[in-house]
């Protein structure tokens, strides 16, 4: 999950509001207080990248959430703090935002019109539409036929496949630079491939009790949206290892990237999982894959 903390929206009360009416308040998005990490979890957690922006209108401050991704996301808007502020709907408020879309999540106004409105917001986002109805399909192996198949960790693997997001993931032990193929048709929703290799990057922290969330943020991955709203995650790609681009439609078997060893990883492998958004949280689904028996816990 992605959290975006927006710095203060502080205004001078009703009079100022009226003066600002119909003007877009240029909140200082550049000085965002913090982008907090997702809670510790193995594999790939985050993935949203929604932004919130405030617009002053006659009927209050509209908090818009913008979705820059080529796929739907769900957002939750909440307060970090507030004084003399009421929201409609009350926070926390959720909304589902379509591909490349924007939605007003809540409208704010002064509880006491003679006083100043003052609020800080945090926007959490999770990729995928929470009402997705995944179909039962057979996935293709995300590797070429001549790649020797060794599975490091299967469903419910005790090393890192022990949370909802990753329970039904498979780790294929493959050398860095192995071609990764799309296991199912879809649209590339997110590509992150700028991180350095995990071991070269930060071996001590990687092995130790360091914050898993920090490591997660260093996991290169591709997220592909399927036509039923489920998503496949191909993770630990090497730096610069994405061949497919955001928004691109890919076919089963198409070359989408190169495997690596980035993020929370103790050795080169490809982490593959099918996920759905189950209401502000990603949940991995059991799946069938041609030529792979992944039912046995590691
Ligand atoms: Zn894994």
From TrEMBL:
**Gene3D superfamilies, per this entry?**
Glucose Permease (Domain IIA)
Could you tell me which residue ranges the M23ase beta-sheet core domain spans? 167-277
Query: Organism's domain of life?
Result: Bacteria
Sorted alphabetically, the keyword list is: Signal
* CDD domains named among the record's database cross-references: M23_peptidase (cd12797)
Offer one Pfam family short name for this entry.
Peptidase_M23
In the record, which residues are listed under signal peptide? 1-37
Keyword Signal attributed = yes
Establish whether keyword Signal is in the entry.
yes
This chain's protein is named M23 family metallopeptidase
Q: Which organism is it from?
A: Novilysobacter avium
The lineage is: Bacteria, Pseudomonadati, Pseudomonadota, Gammaproteobacteria, Lysobacterales
